[in-house]
Design a protein that fits this description.
Layout: H1 12-27, E1 33-40, E2 43-50
Antiparallel strand pairs: 1-2
Amino acid sequence: MEISEYHPFKSRDTKEKYLNYYDAKANEWLIPSETRMVDTSYGQTFVRISGPEDGKPLVLLPGATAIL
């Protein structure tokens, strides 16, 4: 399988639309945050980290039927 530079998106336009939407939503986040790439057993994963360092962890995952 050949992987394109815009994988997993079907086109450059789709990738750009998604990233612009994501950036707009990230700017609405109510508390300061940082982003990081984390190594996992499935490869690198993008994470957004916010809240107090001594707070209890909470992981938010996108729903399978999320609509942009």
